[in-house]
Design a protein that fits this description.
Serine-threonine/tyrosine-protein kinase catalytic domain-containing protein, mainly alpha, single chain, flat, 66 residues, signal
Length: 66
């Protein structure tokens, strides 16, 4: 459950990037929701908003999928 919350927050921050080209596509976001998620490496109370904003362990690079 905690991993799911972290995953959703990471995706949300990715969608809020200032540069539109840096944001994930809807296709990539939907693929991420269908993809098997990895467990988070630290307890929730040790994860800061900065770590969530910059942390992309759940996001695959779209260029590798082409």
């Amino acid at each position: 459950m905690v991993g799911d919350i972290v995953f959703i927050v990471v995706i949300a921050f990715a969608c809020l990037r200032a540069r539109p080209k840096a944001r994930p596509t809807i296709k990539l976001v939907s693929q991420e929701f269908l993809h098997v998620k990895y467990p988070i490496a630290m307890p929730l109370h040790k994860i800061s908003l900065i770590k969530l904003k910059n942390h992309e362990i759940f996001m695959r690079d779209e260029s590798h999928n082409k």
